[in-house]
Every structure is written in C-alpha cells, then in structure tokens.
Design goal:
The complex is a heterodimer of chains A (395) and B (291).
Chain A (H helix, E strand, L loop, with lengths): L4 H10 L7 E4 L2 H11 L4 E5 L10 E2 L7 E4 L2 H11 L3 E3 L8 E2 L3 E5 L5 E10 L4 E7 L6 H7 L5 E4 L8 H10 L5 H19 L2 E11 L5 E3 L2 E5 L8 H4 L9 H8 L3 E4 L4 E5 L2 H13 L6 E4 L6 H13 L5 E8 L4 H14 L6 E7 L2 H10 L4 E4 L2 H14 L1
Parallel strand pairs in A: 15-17, 17-18, 18-19
Antiparallel strand pairs in A: 1-7, 2-4, 2-7, 3-5, 5-6, 8-9, 8-11, 9-10, 11-12, 11-13, 14-16
Helix pairs in contact in A: 2-3, 5-6, 10-11, 11-12
Chain B lengths: L9 E5 L4 H13 L2 E6 L7 E2 L3 E4 L2 H8 L3 E4 L3 H13 L4 E4 L6 H11 L5 E3 L5 E4 L3 E4 L8 E8 L3 H12 L4 E6 L10 H9 L6 E7 L4 H12 L4 E6 L23 H10 L3 E2 L6 H10 L1
Parallel strand pairs in B: 1-2, 1-5, 2-4, 5-6, 6-7, 10-11, 10-12, 12-13, 13-14
Antiparallel strand pairs in B: 3-4, 8-9, 8-11
Helix pairs in contact in B: 3-4, 5-9, 6-7, 7-8
The chains are: A alpha+beta (395), B alpha/beta (291).
C-alpha cells in the first residue's frame, strides 16, 4: 500500500523526523490560508499523487510542473487552482496521468546538500538494510548503475535493531559533521523506529537535505507498507486513497480477490499466483495480450468466483476469458458452480475457455456440461492458450 | 528414496480443528500420512475424527506421540508464534501452509531458527510430498507418483502442473517440495537443491521459480559448480509489470531486480534447461534426461 507525501509527513511528525512545515489543501482557498499561516515568502505547492517525477510533469491544461515555488499566499492559491482537479502526467504515471485532488502547501527550503537514505527488507539475509548515498536528489538506480561505489549498505540485525553506533557510522559516511552529525544520526534512528513500528517494506527519503543554515530535513519520502501487516495498522489502512488505485482492483479487493489490471484483451481467472503468472505468460507466448492477473486463491467461495467473473466481464477491453483451475484446496466443482452462476447472473458477452484439472475435476466438468453453456473446454495449458487467443481474434 | 519426509514421518497438525486444518488433515490421512496428533489451544483432550488426539500445546503433543513433523494451519496473525512453538518443542520439520504472515514476523522467526535443529518449509507454501509415502500439505495426492525426479517450487498450483506433466509421461517424483511464495522463508531453492544432491535416488531436478528476489540465481551458481544431474526450470512472471506484487508477497520486481529474464539467464548460464512455456515443463526435463 502507498501513501501520499502529506501523509508521509504526518507519519514523520509522529516519529520526530524533521520535515519542513506543510499541510494538505483541497481547495485554492485552503491553500492560501495554510500559506498565510507560515508567515514566510519561501513557499512551495506540490501536487499530491502516488507517483514520482511531479516536478517535470505536465497538466492536461498545458500547465507545466507539479512542484512550484512561490512567495505569497495569493500565489499559492493561484498555483493550487491550476493543479487541483487537473490531471498530471509524469514519466511514472503513464500517459493517462493522475487527477490531483490535494496539494501540499509547505515552506520551501534552500538546499546546500542532498543525500539519499532508505530502509528496506533484504530478502537474502532476512534483515532490514539501510541503503544510503551522498548522491541525493537523483534516481538511485542510476547511481547504482554508474557509481556503485557510492551506494552504502548497512545491514541491521533483525532482533537487535538499528544501533546508535550504526546511525553515527552512516552519518559519517554521508559526510555529516559537527552539529549536523548527531542531528542526522538521530533522524536515521527515528526513521528506523518508524520502519519497524509500522511494518514498512520501504521508506525512501530522496532527497534528505541540509539547508545552508545546517538544518537536516527529510524533503520527500516514499513509503511502502507490508500488505500482510496492515491488519495490525488500522491507522495506516485509513490512509488508503482508493482514487489512486485501479477501480477494478479496488472492486476486486472488496471480495478478497487478488486482481491486477493490465492493458490486454484476454482475461484470465486462475487459482494460485504462480499459475496465474504462468497463464498470463502463456497467453502472451500464444500471441495474445493478457488483460489482467487474477488469483482466486485457495479457499475462494462461490460468491468470490462469481464476483471475479463479473469484474472480468465488466472490462470493456476483454474479448475472451480463460479460466484455468488446477484444484488443490480449490475444488473444481466449486469453480464450475461459480462460473455457472456468474454466467447466468451476467449474460456472457465474450467467448469463454475453461481448463480444469485436480480435485473433483470430473464433477466440475460434468457440472459445466450439464449447464449447456457455450464453453470451450481445454485439457492442457497449451490448448487452452491457443483456444482463447483464437477466440479473441474472432471477435 | 526421498528427502525430509517418508513413511516414518509422524505428523502433527497445528490448527487441526479449524476448517482448513481439518479438511487438509483428512486429505493427508487419506493419502496415507501417519497423522499422530493435532494441536488447538483449548481443545486438548478431544479426538479428531475419532482417531487423532488433540492437545493444547505442541510440547504436550510431542511428549505423548513423538511427532517429528508439523503442518501449520494457524491464521496469519498467530502463525509466527505457532512456528516458534514447534521449534521450541523440538519438532524436526515444520511446514507452514499459512499465507499472509507479516514479513517482519518471519524476519524474527527466521532469526530464532538459527542454530536450532528444526527445519522450516514455507510459509505460504503448499507443503511437501514424497509420493506413495507421506504427504504434508494441500496438494492433490493423485497427480503424483513415486519416482526419481526432485521438484522444487515457490508456487502451489503451478507445481501441480509440472508434476502432472511428469506423471502423465511416466516419470515419477522422489519428493516435491513447495518452498512457498513469501520473500523470507525457511528453505530456499538452494537449500532444497543441496538436500536433493545428497539423495542418491533423485536423478534429476525441476526448479519452478518466479519473479522477485535472487533465490533462483543463487541456486544456479551452486548447481553449476556442484550438481551434474539434469536440471530443468521454468520461471513464471515474464509478463508481469514491474513494481507490482503478483499475488505472492515475494513476487515483485523492484528496482529492476528479480526479473524473469534475469533468472532465466542465470539458470541457462548454469547449464539448466529452460522451459519456454508452463506447458512444456515436464517435456523439457524429460528431453534432458535422455542426454
């Protein structure tokens, strides 16, 4: 799960990680009010979307830049007016862009130096790792490619946690000195506390800045949370912005379905994430384009299967559907009944290819046959892929 | 022969009275697994299906029945603790089926496992089966047959695809081990490959991987130096978009790392035969057996 920059600021505030003063606004008037409260001529208005590259992005109106400096509350209002309700396209949003519903109005700070600081989980060692670099404010992947020696990695013991001496060590490696040394080290320790307390999978601060006055700030941050742990962080769950998500995925999650929308025209419904990925792969290999990833999981109820079907059918791009079920926990008769009910509930507008195998397969196949529905049955994966690709082309 | 489980395995089921635990305990018993105990706190003293004694704690189950393996069907918020309980009671093989355990819980569990005699498989896995002898997990038994091919996979149903392809062509499996789809797990591809390399009756391996992490690459490097028998592999997720979690918590391409293409390249480098599509996993291995 992702969150907006203004929400990241709130979380940083909770953990005493210094950020410049700022607050979110939903209207130009609100933006003006917030700006006035700062009593400064150094302001910035930032579009709030779940994507990077905002500074270089362009709005649907032609207005350029989703991060703009200004000097007065009135200017802040004008900028907010140009952003709110408009669609911002950046190199990370895709061509459709994202609608800006909130802006962050903040004090802008002068930057003397920028560094990169992130914490993520290292799968290989099963421990958190701090990744840092003196090259802040740029894409870290570029730094890793062109200057790998400038990437610092500090593993954290999974039970001992991030020790104060490690924070100091990192601060030195990032060229902090004097008063800034302890400030930076404290900031790092607080970010780690946040990372662990909130079950994050990533906290990335880019850039972490030092102002000419020597103040250390987290200027921009990206957070990812472990979806598996959200059940124990209701406050984080409340930060979810469904407008930033694919509406099909939002609908699917209401029924506990694992759905990811893609651009193609062949939909698939599969049990098991690995098999679902492999089904997308084989559709592509057979010359088609997968429209989605959908895993109904191990214990999907008939209702879930029915709802999954409805979501697939509702996607106007879809020209054919492939149901590929290998029953382990998932019983083929339950799937068959779900398909039958879904097809009956929502008239089937596109060709359907069903491939079943596994627990209760004969019962499942019989149910489908007895239903007299127009379903093409496939025995193996290859045949299933060929049939559905051909069916999609016929439409 | 086999690795880790056989007809001598004495299985405990943690969460046996829950609906999933009960359903799959029965599935294992029907297959012929020796299920000797169940644990559900508060239900100690009951008899599951009239035959399996239920205990309140793993410790008591161990003392009374000598169980040497456990299958965990405990809900995600409590599964980490269930694993730790089994390890503390000295159960040698812990198979955790549960999906959705917070990553940091697994980080702590894995650390606690260091230096202990227990081996963890999973979590978020279908289990492990030595066909004809012992099934610990949720896989359909009938698709397997005893044989000489070792199967290692992160997936559940994609594994069944591969196994069924092998069985239908007359090639059986020594042991199939589902290591699970989570980013931090108890047994990696490499761990499993090493175990199989010590089993003289396993004559070939199938490795099924997916995007995310570097486990397949690590196994490839070791195989190149240390394993001569035929190996085939399939990597799922070539068409997955980057940065998205594809179902499994561990199936995500981040920062350009963990791509299917990268894994396939590493495996090819090690002389491992790559199946082009999931439909040809079995056939790819069989072709390489003949050489």
């Amino acid at each position: 799960m992702n969150i907006h920059e203004y929400q990241a600021k709130q979380l940083f505030g909770r953990f005493n990680v210094a950020t410049p003063k700022g607050a979110p606004a939903e209207t130009p008037e609100e933006a003006e009010k917030i700006a006035a409260g700062f009593n400064t001529s150094k302001l910035v208005v930032k579009a709030q979307i779940h994507a990077g590259g905002r500074g270089k992005g362009t709005f649907d109106s032609g207005f350029k830049g989703g991060v703009k400096l200004c000097s007065t509350p009135a200017e802040a209002r004008e900028l907010a007016d140009k952003m709110l309700g408009h669609t911002l396209v950046t190199h990370q949003t895709g061509p459709a862009g994202k609608v800006v519903r909130k802006v962050l109005v903040a004090e802008s700070v002068d930057i003397a130096r920028e560094v990169y600081f992130a914490i993520l989980m290292d799968r290989g060692t099963g421990s958190p790792v701090v990744v840092a670099s003196t090259e802040g404010g740029v894409e870290i992947e570029k730094v890793a490619e062109e200057h790998p020696e400038k990437i610092i990695r500090e593993l954290v013991h999974p039970l001992l946690g991030f020790q104060p001496f490690q924070a100091l060590k990192l601060a030195r490696q990032l060229d902090f000195k004097g008063d800034q040394l302890k400030a930076a080290a404290t900031l790092f320790s607080n970010v780690f506390k946040l990372f662990i307390s909130l079950d994050c999978s990533l906290v990335e601060i880019n850039p972490l800045v030092v102002t000419p006055e020597g103040v250390v700030y987290a200027l921009d941050a990206k957070f990812n949370f472990d979806d598996n742990a959200l059940y124990r962080h209701k406050d984080i769950l409340e930060m979810r912005d469904i407008y930033e998500e694919d509406p099909r995925e939002v609908e699917a999650s209401r029924f506990g379905l694992n759905y990811i929308g893609l651009e193609g025209d062949i939909a698939c419904l599969v049990n098991g994430a690995g098999l679902a990925m492999a089904t997308m792969d084989i559709i592509k290999y057979a010359g088609g384009e997968p429209a989605n990833f959908l895993d109904v999981g191990g214990g999907a109820s008939e209702e879930q299967v029915t709802e999954a079907f409805k979501i697939l059918i509702a996607d106007k791009n879809v020209k054919a559907i492939l149901v590929n079920i290998f029953g382990g926990i998932m019983r083929c008769d339950v799937i068959a009944q779900g398909i039958i009910n879904a097809v009956k509930a929502v008239s089937l507008p596109v060709p359907l290819v069903v491939r079943l195998e596994g627990t209760n397969v004969d019962l499942g196949k019989k149910l489908l046959e007895d239903s007299r529905l127009p379903i093409q049955a496939a025995t193996d994966l290859s045949e299933a892929a060929k049939l559905v690709v051909a069916a999609a082309k016929k439409v | 022969m086999s690795i880790l489980v056989d007809s001598n395995t004495r299985l405990l089921v943690q969460g046996i009275t829950g609906s999933s635990g009960a359903f799959h305990a029965r599935g294992c018993m029907e297959y012929g697994t020796n299920v000797v105990a169940g644990v559900t706190p508060g239900k100690g003293g009951q008899l599951f299906d009239g035959q399996v004694p239920v205990f309140d704690t793993v410790y008591e189950a161990g003392q009374q029945t000598g169980c040497n393996a456990t299958m965990i069907f405990v809900p995600a918020p409590f599964a980490g603790d269930a694993i730790l309980e089994a390890v503390d009671a000295g159960v040698e093989l812990v198979v955790c089926i549960t999906e959705g355990i917070p990553v940091m819980d697994m980080m702590r569990v894995k650390t606690a496992l260091r230096g202990k005699k227990s081996r963890l498989i999973g979590p978020n896995c279908p289990g492990i089966i030595t066909p004809g002898q012992c099934k610990i997990g949720i896989m359909p038994g009938y698709i397997h047959r005893p044989g000489k091919i070792g199967v290692i996979s992160r997936s559940g149903t994609l594994t069944y695809e591969a196994v069924w392809q092998l069985t239908q062509r007359g090639f059986g499996q020594s042991t199939c081990i589902g290591i699970g789809g989570d980013p931090i797990n108890g047994t990696s591809h490499l761990d499993a490959v090493k175990l199989f390399s010590e089993d003289p009756d396993t004559e070939a391996l199938i490795i099924i991987g997916e995007i995310g992490g570097t486990a397949e690459e690590e196994a490839a490097v070791w195989i190149k130096e240390n394993y001569d028998k035929p190996v085939a592999a399939f990597i799922a997720g070539a068409t997955a978009p980057p940065g998205r979690r594809m179902g499994h918590a561990g199936a995500i391409v981040s920062g350009g790392k963990g791509t299917a293409a990268g894994k396939m390249e590493a495996l090819r480098e090690a002389g491992i035969a790559i199946a082009d599509t999931p439909a040809t996993m079995g056939a790819t291995l069989i072709k390489n057996l003949k050489h």
